[in-house]
Each structure stands twice: as C-alpha cells, then as structure tokens.
C-alpha cells in the first residue's frame, strides 16, 4: 500500500476533531488521511487500478469538499491506493454510457474537477505508473503535479473515437500554451515525462516508487507557508486568465488588504528580522 502516516507529526488544537471528521467522510472509494497540516486524499479502488466510475467520482468530490472545511489544513495531496494512480474512466461504465447515455449524469466529473480546483488549499497530485485520458484530466485542476518517470500520462481520447471533454481543451492550454495543448490532444499520444516537465505540465519527475513520498514532502513544504497568504494567492492566480488585467490587479490588491492587520503578517516580518523560522497560525 502507498498510504502511510507519520505518527509523530505535529497537529494543531483542532486536529483531533478534524481527524474525526475525515474518518466519518471516508467512503468506500475515497478516503482522507490527515498528518499535521497536510491531508492526503486517496482514490481507493486498487482492484480496478483506481478506475473512476460514478461512485468514485462522487466520493472524491465529497472528499475535496471536506478538505476545504477542515481547520488547520494547509495543503492536500491526491494519490492512488496501490501501485497505480488511476487507470482513467471505468471501461464498463463507458461502454454502458455509449449504449444508453441518458442514464448517466454528465455533470459528475465536472463537479469533481471543480471541487479540486476550488479547494482553498494548494493541491498536489502524485501520478504513479498511469494516468491516461480521464485520469490525466483529473490531475489538471491540481496546483502541482509530481510524475513518475515511467508513467503513462496523456490524453488519448482521439484514439478512442471521441476527444477529451472533461476540461482538457480548456485547462491544458492555460498550463502549456495552445500549440502544445493541440499537439497533446490531437496526436492522442502519451507525453514523455521529461517533456512534461520541460513544458511546465508537471512540477517534478521522480523515480518510480518515490512518487507518493515526494508528493507528501512537497505538500509539507507548502504547508510551512502562511495559510492566509496561500489561500488568497491561489484565488488571485486562479482568476488571472478569466479577468481583464486591471480587474485582476484590483482584486489582488483587495485580497492583500485583507491581510494587513493579521497576526501572520506581523509574524512573517518579525521572524525575518529576528532570523528565525515563522510560526504561522492562520489568523
């Protein structure tokens, strides 16, 4: 199993009640594990290589909506239980959908992607072994992606008689540019992991078997930063491509003013002047 917990991790005063909340949320096909200021969200269907059916997508949506309500959480990971991140959409489900498309809720997957994108804390996907098609699209709303050097990663839908319409045609150009996005979508080929790093699609490429550990470590590094600052920075960045420049700048300044009189703002500067590590508390 890829999941692991750090029994010695420090937690804040609300951690016990939040851990109870996470335990109550744990459904059959997704679960949350909290370690200090980090939460790990697992796709928990290893016997099917974590392939997504409607139940998996619903459970993952609830998981990320829960993450946003937990006090003291500053970063979240998305991991697959077992050796494979996610094999994509469940083929049995897709076969049934072709035969009777009206029986399926086409908003289930978009709701999941929106829940990840709107998660108030930074999110890091750990992509081990495989993330084709819908699994590739699942990683795009995450803020960071850690990719195994042997992973099969790409949008292959044009080779399956359709095209990626779970967000890739819109999110991918924002990450890698329109020309590169067209190359990835229209060729239907997996991208070489090192090329994925060069074009900015993934944050890091790591050795096989180390993805989960590095993903957790990356999230822990993020969690050392000021939570109020990260939350507002993420909101400003997420809106950067959807608003005119002047509107975005005004929004950025308004968010900045919200932090002027916070304890964390004072703590950050005091710590720098005093030559010590800051102790941010989220207020």
Structure description:
The protein starts with 14 loop residues before the first helix and ends in a 9-residue tail after the last helix. The strands form two sheets. Strands 1-2-3-4-6-8 form a six-stranded mixed beta sheet, sandwiched between helices. A two-stranded parallel ribbon has the order 5-7. It has 283 residues and is α/β, with parallel strands linked by helices. 44% of the residues lie in helices and 13% in strands. It contains twelve helices and eight strands. Strand 2, helix 2 (54-67) and strand 3 (75-80) form a beta-alpha-beta unit. Helix 10 runs antiparallel to helix 11.
Shape: globular
**Strand fraction band?**
5-15%
What's the assembly state of these chains?
A: single chain
Rg, Å, rounded: 19 Å
* Overall mean pLDDT: 89
Question: Uncertain spans, ≥5 residues at pLDDT below 50?
Answer: 1-15, 20-24
Count helical runs. 12
Strands, count: 8
What gap, in angstroms, lies between the N and C termini?
A: 37 Å
Major sheet strand order: 1-2-3-4-6-8
SSE string, helices as H and strands as E: HEEHEHHEEHEEHHHEHHHH
Main sheet record: 6 strands, mixed
Structural class from helices and strands? alpha/beta
Helicity, as a percent range: 40-55%
